[in-house]
# Entry
Amino acid sequence: MLKKIPTQQVQLGMFLQSMEGSWLSHPFWKTKFVLRDQADLDALLRSGVPAVWIDVSKGSDSSSDEPSAPGSTNTDIAEALPVEAPEIRVEEPVAALPPPSITPARAARVSLGSEMEQATLVMNRSREQVTALFGEARMGNAINSEQCQPLVEEIANSVARNPSALISLARLKTKDDYTYMHSVAVCALMVSLSRQLGLDEQTTRDAGMAGLLHDIGKMAMPIELLNKAGQLTDAEFTVIRSHPVRGYQLLKESEGVPATALDVCLHHHEKMDGTGYPQKLKGEQISLLARMGAVCDVYDAVTSTRPYKAAWDPAGSIQRMAQWTGQFDPLVFKAFVMCVGIYPVGSLVKLDSGRLAVVVDLNPLQLAAPVVRVFYSTRSKLPISVQTLDLADPASGDRVVGRESPQDWGFTHLDEIWRKG
# Structure
């Protein structure tokens, strides 16, 4: 039996089923576990998470009979409460999706360094166009999806040449332009994932359009909530959770928006175990593109700096996401890892030689052997001459033995290293 209690009433021995508020801010890599460690309890109490759901059939119960989580009664917030999620026909998922495999490139793949200049130009144009597009939406104007098609095409072409270039640049967005550039990043990730799954080019373009428009409902949210640096109250989080419905309504009123974009906009926060929102869809009830959108949306969110949290490193984000049982489609997530890599560009890794390096490009056929730039010796605890190694080449004489946390080493300049030509 599930029961919601204020975080301050949590005790050791309770089975944590889920946590209220933004999941990005909670202190654990997973939920659904018995709380046994005092350090974990202390971290939860400090986290700002307002309330949790416990399963009293799997762990201890609380002493209070009917506890309720604290929340805000702010009048302005209450006026912005969401409407009911509309009933729409969910796109039928691909029935027999084959196991993900490395698919042949559809365009000649170039190195990340070679694509960086072009990707930078695409990013700059994207920033201008998406800012203008979302500005129109904030004023309540209809979206012209035809104006988005050339931008999706540009992004798709850059991703075809080297997916990591644009995806990695988009990760460097600031917290001020997060809402706009997050949509560009999810567009690029959706295109890359579509190709990895072997979807046809029209479906790939539709997926890119869906990624570009998936968060348009954020434009109906109060700006002060989008930019709030601290923990959201229950009432504020309820408002933010209405953005898929608000986005769906906005796109529905616009002309020419593909049904796939409507679907992904409404359902990119659904989870495979049925605990997502707004309709609590489960498993195959969630379309393939919405399942893809869920993974792409979360990855870019956790690897980006937000008003209320610092970015997680790319490799650490993949590791954490892999532990969130029930959230993502395992098949889609496996294909996604093949897109961005076990060690995505920008990851800090330790080599067998004892050197630290930043991943600067992927080897699609050998994901555990990326191209890296070494710059530090863990043995001497000193910087060393920067050197680029292709670990897929036996002549490199080295290999990755694991990921490292940049925070643990105090490195704040890794982006400068991997962006160098």
Q: What stands out?
A: The beta strands are 2-6, 15-19, 33-34, 51-55, 348-351, 355-361, 371-377, 382-390, 400-403. Residues 64-85, 87-106 have pLDDT under 50 and may be disordered.
